């Protein structure tokens, strides 16, 4: 059951990447010791380039962050709900690096941001 939920979240997330749709995500926040809900753009799914632990994570652009950092990286187990919204995003809002030098884990057709 849990495995199905995690698989469904990953499939929905990757579909949102390809269709450039924002998502509403509810997740367990370790820092807040509770659940948070945020509207985000799905950025990528794969290991973190900065973390020692190379476990696959959901990487998101958090439009509603209450800190200066808008990048959110979540372990699959942290995600409680994931809904693909009917609202588009523009990758130019958050892609500031050369994606040829640091490519995405999930290939996509985002023009110059691919």
Q: Could you give a quick summary of the protein structure above?
A:
This protein is of the alpha+beta class and 114 residues long. It has one helix spanning 2-19, and strands at residues 21-29, 34-47, 56-62, 71-74, 79-88.
Largest sheet: 5 strands, antiparallel
Radius of gyration: 14 Å
By DSSP (H or I, 4+ residues per run), the number of helices equals: 1
Roughly how many Å apart are the termini? Answer: 34 Å
- Mean pLDDT across the residues is 93
- CATH domain class name: Mainly Beta
pLDDT < 50 stretches: none
The CATH topology assignment is SH3 type barrels
Q: How are helices and strands ordered from N to C?
A: HEEEEE
CATH architecture: Roll
Q: Say how many strands there are.
A: 5
For the record, the count of structural domains works out to 1
Query: What's the overall geometry?
Result: globular
Strand order of the largest sheet: 4-3-2-1-5
Helix content: 10-25%
Content of β-strand: 35-45%
> Structural class, from helix and strand content?
alpha+beta
